[in-house]
Specification:
heterodimer; A: alpha/beta; Rossmann fold; six-stranded mixed β-sheet; four-stranded antiparallel β-sheet; 37% helix; B: mainly alpha; MetI-like fold; 81% helix
């Protein structure tokens, strides 16, 4: 009851992900991975979690994904408590984690296969998604025939195939080179805007966090906590060039101050 | 509008230039060997002349054909023994990978079976199963078991945490994780085990034949050796090599077909095949709609 009150107070009706007093400890309470996180993410918003290792950003993401359970507090997605992996939440990892014995399109169809039977409509959707991520011509290639960036695009298409409207990304392009990563970030913005997903993006790169997000949660370690929430009022759609603007650099400084002071 | 089939077959001239040096070396070695025996440097009782091995080959394989019934008996023993050993090994490995307690109970026996020389079981197995094919099949099964068991288990136990997390986040159950992730990921190691197991199965069959048997290439070779007919003895040995090659390459072929994603050429072939299948399905479903 109290939970419902918090969600409504923060953003009546539109909060998609909401956490109140969310905490996670490991090793019998000796390691506090995440301490007392309070947040609400409205529908269709893009939130970046940024901070050094051990700040709890990946823990928070896994909590929302339902891969781990919180030791304290409550976490809600679409108004229902998170009790495990769910259909409306999907996650993407730093490695593409494709199955090398499946073609790109078969990898994209994996979520449908796990959920039940694959229908013609699912196949059509998978093909559309591959076109959306720019890999229409590579539907029948195996992962070994694709570059690292292309593999992540397949992973993104697979994530969208789940039909989830909450998308969790754990440093998805972290293993790629700078140029590929920047290009994919721009495409990511286009794609999530097109499907209207609510997105949580984990990174340790401040500029990347700001460039992508509507809100940046700056997180600090020992204990892991959300130290500050920075609103990013930059216009959309965004070009890479905004990273040289004074407003952008002001936001970077603001985040750096929080991390530096810690 | 079909592309002509791409031919990767090298032409005869290329093959000649590729293998000529090897053939030449082989020829020279044979000639030196023949000369050493003919000039009496090596006595024929110890090592036969290549020419007398050749004469025995022609007789055993082509003129009298004596070798063939024995050849097929040994081949059958090795294959059946392998199949039994592999079936038990894979079943136990699957069980062990799914259940920790099961693995803890099975492992000690598997290890004891491995460190005990399987070949040493020959007299016991012959006492149990008799002089016929049964004892050969049993020994082949016993000694091919362990390499298959260990490789399959290692393959199935490989855990890729991120991939498992992916499956979990998609709501996959244990059965789906097993069939769609663990089994395909284990296939390369499974086949490595099967290839070793197939070769050891042949050793098992032949050793049991040497010990006590009524038929098989091991019996034939024993007989020729007792007669000091070294030419025929070595000609018989060649049949074992032949069986070994047949077994190994059949498994290699299966490996290449089933674990197709390792080789560029196979990946491309399968990729084209799946694209065609997709197109066909799209066409038929378009018609029915």
């Amino acid at each position: 009851m109290e939970q419902q009150a918090i969600i409504e107070a923060n953003d009546p009706g539109t909060a998609v992900v909401a956490g109140s007093n969310v905490g996670k400890t490991f090793a019998n309470g000796t390691v506090v991975a995440l301490d007392n996180a309070e947040f609400t993410i409205p529908k269709g918003k893009f939130v970046s979690l940024v901070g050094p290792s051990g700040c709890g950003k990946s823990t928070l993401l896994r909590l929302i994904a339902g891969l781990i359970a919180p030791t304290s507090g409550h976490l809600h997605v679409h108004g229902t408590q998170v009790a495990g992996p769910r259909q409306d939440v999907a996650m993407m990892f730093q490695r593409a984690t494709l199955l090398e014995w499946r073609t790109a399109i078969e990898n994209v169809l994996l979520p449908t296969e796990i959920a039940g039977n694959v229908e013609d409509a699912d196949r059509e959707r998978a093909m559309e998604l591959l076109h959306l991520v720019g890999l229409g011509d590579f539907a029948f290639s195996f992962p070994a025939q694709l570059s690292g960036g292309m593999q992540q695009r397949v992973a993104l298409a697979r994530l969208l195939q789940t039909g989830a409207d909450v998308i969790l990304l754990d440093e998805p392009f972290g293993a790629l080179d700078e140029f590929t990563r920047e290009r994919l970030n721009v495409e990511l913005l286009r794609i999530v805007a097109e499907v209207g997903a609510t997105t949580v993006f984990v990174t340790h790169n401040i500029a990347e966090a700001i460039f992508l997000a509507d809100e940046v949660y700056v997180m600090t370690p020992r204990p892991g906590r959300i130290a500050k929430v920075i609103d990013v009022p930059l216009e959309r759609p965004r070009e890479l060039a905004i990273q040289t603007s004074p407003e952008f650099n002001h936001l970077v400084d603001e985040a750096r101050d929080v991390l530096g002071a810690h | 509008m079909m592309d002509p089939p791409k031919s990767n077959r090298p032409n005869a001239l290329w093959l000649m230039s590729r293998f000529a040096p090897h053939l030449a070396l082989f020829g020279v070695l044979i000639i030196i060997w023949e000369l050493l025996v003919r000039t009496g440097v090596i006595t024929t009782i110890m090592i036969p002349k290549p020419s007398s091995i050749g004469a025995s080959i022609i007789d055993l394989y082509f003129v009298s054909g004596t070798i063939w019934p024995h050849f097929f008996i040994t081949l059958t023993e090795a294959v059946l023994g392998f199949c039994i050993g592999a079936a038990i090994a894979i079943a136990l490995a699957v069980g062990s990978s799914l259940s920790d307690p099961f693995r803890r109970y099975v492992m000690p026996y598997a290890i004891v079976m491995n460190v005990t020389p399987g070949i040493a079981l020959t007299p016991v197995i012959i006492a149990w199963f008799g002089f016929g094919m049964g004892s050969k099949i049993a020994l082949a099964a016993v000694i091919s078991f362990f390499p298959i068991f260990v490789n399959t288990l290692t393959g199935l136990m490989q855990v890729d945490n991120e991939r498992e997390e992916l499956f979990t986040s998609l709501g996959a159950n244990r059965f789906q994780i097993f069939t769609r992730l663990r089994v395909p990921a284990a296939l390369p190691l499974l086949f490595a085990g099967l290839k070793i197991g197939l070769t050891t199965a042949l050793i098992g069959a032949v050793v049991a034949e040497f010990a006590q048997a009524t038929a098989g290439v091991g019996v034939l070779m024993n007989r020729f050796s007792f007669q000091l007919n070294m030419g025929a003895s070595l000609a018989t040995l060649l049949s074992m090599t032949l069986i070994g090659l047949i077994l190994f390459y059949s498994m290699e072929f299966l490996d290449d077909r089933l674990v197709f994603w390792r080789r560029e050429e196979r990946r491309e072939a399968v990729s084209r095949k799946r694209a065609r299948a997709w197109k066909r399905r799209a066409e038929t479903s378009g018609r029915t709609r």
